[in-house]
Amino acid sequence: MSERKKFIIGGFEFETYYEYRGAQEDVRKIECINQELDIQDPEVALRLYNDIRDGIITFNSPIGQQYAEHVADIVAKKSAGLLDDREIIEEAAGRAKSTKALGYVFVGLAVVLIGVFASVEIKEIIHTRKLAKLDDQVQSAANATGNTNNSQNNVNNSNVIDDIHSVENQNGGESGNTAPANEIDDDFIHSQWDANYAAGERQILPEMNELYSQNNDFVGVLTVVDTDINYPVMQTPSDPEYYLRRDFYGESSTAGTLFVDYRCDIVNPTTNTIIYGHNMRSGTMFGGLKRYLDYDYYQAHKTIIFKTLYEEQTYQVVGVGLSEVGYDDDDTYKYYDFIDALTGEELQEFIDNIQSLSVFDETIDITSDDKLLTLSTCNTYTENGRMFVVAKRIK
User: Fold this and answer.
1) Residue 14: CA atoms inside 13 Å, Cβ hemisphere, count?
2) What is the residue range of 66's domain?
3) Of these residues, 70, 264, 278, 301, which one is catalytic?
4) Total structural domains in the chain?
5) Residue 78 to residue 63: CA distance in whole angstroms
6) Which of UniProt's keywords are assigned here (predicted)?
7) From 70, 264, 301, 378, active-site residue
8) pLDDT (tens digit, 9 = 90+) per residue, 80-131?
9) Who has the most CB within 10 Å: 17, 108, 179, 260?
């Protein structure tokens, strides 16, 4: 069994990452206070104590609480002449649980922690600014043709998903779908979108050059129109899940970055292009895909733009399904293994299976002429559950 990760700041250990982040915030507050105020000045200490007492300044960790006690200790010892109300003096003295010596020790510790976190904070600020700049660049690249993303003016920027859990779980993995699947009559399939470019023959779109120059793993921008999904997409054939827990810059990130299945071809698109992303509770990445489990939402959000390095592709959503991870030794259909098809039989197998996995009682409209795009993410309707949105190219 792997050892539980510890979150430690100085001599303080925290059970969860959220407590740890709260302590970091407290350290930053202490840093600001010590930079701006001389808390050994009785009048300053009194004002600071009253702000803490009245909830104007709050702390959320033992580090912050000890600092508050240290301020109370200063007030009790140095500010008596400034106080008319004896109760406040006694209250401050009662709160000052630590001794004067402990107070000095804590201040010393705080100085050390501030030094450590100052460097960490600088890195975080730089990284945050880089991500903000990246968002602007992604938006510019997506909008470069003038009409790719006009409807983003109506995007849900709040990232609030109404009754998110009931939407996610309303189907319970049982669609009750009785609609028939499309029949493919062709022995061999052919699409109008088929391409046969030699390596290096295709030219990168001008608006993609800046993002590509920052990271050569970048292969395009995915925009689900009228939603919050508008992200760069990566691909690393030699390390397929490299961006599972990394951001665009390759730095550690819980949310990761959208990435294309290593078996798919961006230059000469395969029958099916699969893009993976995390189902984040915040709604970021593919967290918003769960909204497609609501039929009205599904009907109202049919357009997906995948702007690759080389061309802008427009897709229409044709199906939504729930599945689970299949293992090599079981019979579970693995929708994520359908990449390229040459025969009608191969395409028919895919259509039959996603039809059976569909959450809506309607025939999924896919023909032998279609190129497909599949968005895949996790879903909690069952252990190892997966959700997918299938779209066909229309432009």
Assistant:
1) 17
2) 7-120
3) 278
4) 2
5) 23
6) Hydrolase, Membrane, Transmembrane, Transmembrane helix
7) 378
8) 555 545 555 555 655 554 444 444 445 555 554 555 455 545 555 566 677 7
9) 260
